[in-house]
Design goal:
binds pyridoxal-5'-phosphate; binds iron/sulfur cluster; three-stranded antiparallel beta sheet; 2 domains; TIM Barrel; alpha/beta; 11 helices; ten-stranded mixed beta sheet
């Protein structure tokens, strides 16, 4: 098996889901895109529940709960020209494509990504680049989508080079799942497409479970790092997949071992039909508190919440330092003990 499976029927044919549920999954598949790469299918066939839950559709996706919304992080509100989302003064998202090599069942952009989603045509891409070139406050351009690494090396290389040539752009950051879901796509041509004069390219790899860090995935990550590209990771906290201390500990340590710095642990966004994969904020905060002290600082990502409506990301962890009145503070250590810290004015 070497091709991507793109329907529940295909998943059933390869033994990844029970043929008896194919019919009842029709409305799920009609609403949300389905794709499982050969590499991921192998992991699911090999018995990985963490991979099955992330990529194989279920009826639970038809259940909508209060608060869920089609555009959970408010991309639309901040779209300035097609494909460009500008929420913060110094950085901007550019979405050249709306397709992904896999479709995650918890995707925060599940209403806009997929084969039916729009990708930018040449004229739109030119206008997007021109918009960025005209905003001299923009230091960082974040390529996202969809997954920008589905572009051919020549198209990707041309885009990275154009962005890097803009004098005020210092960093091009590429958000991708390709190294872990389709590691064979990380070819020497793709790696060199990511490098251009004028700006530094950073790669942010989306990965949620140690089962994704297979030997081919590790090699793909190594090819990127060996080429001199700095790598960070993004992980979504997912109920029944990685919402326990041991899984997160293993994941973040393995990432650091692969020379990838854990960057963000995202609280699950309020995307439609994803309640079964979302933890509570209380649980997320309790987990993250337990990681402190147990994991080195190098292995710790920042736990973040994207405020519904497009107000941006904020750290979501419980506070370690709190005001105790009269200028003093209480500080909780990693074992839960509380200590007093004197009023700042009295510290020499
Ligand atoms: C997440 C996001 C960014 C990047 O934010 P960082 O905190 O720098 O990773 C930029 N723009 C938008 C619209 C975003 O959603
Ligand atoms: S790779 Fe990212 S954008 Fe694509 S389906 Fe998964 S979460 Fe959504």
């Amino acid at each position: 098996m070497s091709t991507t499976l793109r329907s529940v029927q295909a998943l059933a044919r390869e033994g990844l889901l029970d043929p008896k549920v194919v019919a009842e999954l029709a409305p799920v598949e009609a609403r949300y895109a389905v794709a499982v790469t050969a590499h991921i299918a192998e992991g699911i066939s090999g018995g990985s529940e963490a991979l099955r839950r992330q990529f194989v559709p279920t009826r639970a996706e038809l259940r909508l709960v209060d608060g869920e919304r089609a555009d959970p992080i408010g991309d639309d509100v901040h779209e300035v020209v097609p494909g460009v989302v500008h929420r913060y003064p110094d950085r901007v998202l550019l979405k050249p494509v709306h397709v992904c090599p896999v479709y995650c069942r918890f995707c925060f952009r599940r209403e806009s990504v997929g084969p039916k989603g729009l990708s930018l045509d040449t004229g739109q891409l030119d206008r997007a680049v021109a918009w960025i070139a005209a905003q001299d406050g923009i230091f960082e351009v974040i390529l996202t989508g969809g997954d920008p690494l589905v572009l051919s090396p020549s198209r990707l290389g041309a885009l990275v080079a154009r962005l890097s040539a803009i004098p005020h752009v210092g960093v091009v950051r590429v958000h991708t799942r390709v190294p872990v879901v389709a590691p064979q796509r990380v070819t020497p041509d793709l790696v060199s497409a990511l490098q251009a004069d004028g700006a530094a390219t950073w790669v942010a790899v989306h990965t949620n479970h140690p089962d994704e860090l297979t030997p081919p995935a590790r090699s793909a990550l190594a090819r990127l790092v060996d080429a001199g590209l700095p790598l960070v990771s993004q992980t979504v906290l997912l109920k029944g997949i990685n919402d326990d201390v041991d899984t997160l500990t293993t994941l973040f340590r393995q990432l650091v071992r692969c020379r990838v710095k854990p960057y963000y642990l995202h609280h699950g966004d309020l995307a439609p039909g994803t309640a079964h994969l979302r933890t509570s904020l209380e649980r997320g905060r309790a987990l993250v508190a337990r990681l402190r002290g147990r994991l080195s600082g190098l292995c710790q990502p920042t736990y973040v919440l994207d405020i519904p409506g497009g107000h941006g990301k904020v750290p979501a962890a419980a506070a370690w330092v709190e005001s105790a009145g009269e200028g003093g503070w209480t500080v909780r250590d990693w074992q839960g003990q509380v200590h007093a810290y004197p009023p700042t004015s009295k510290v020499p």
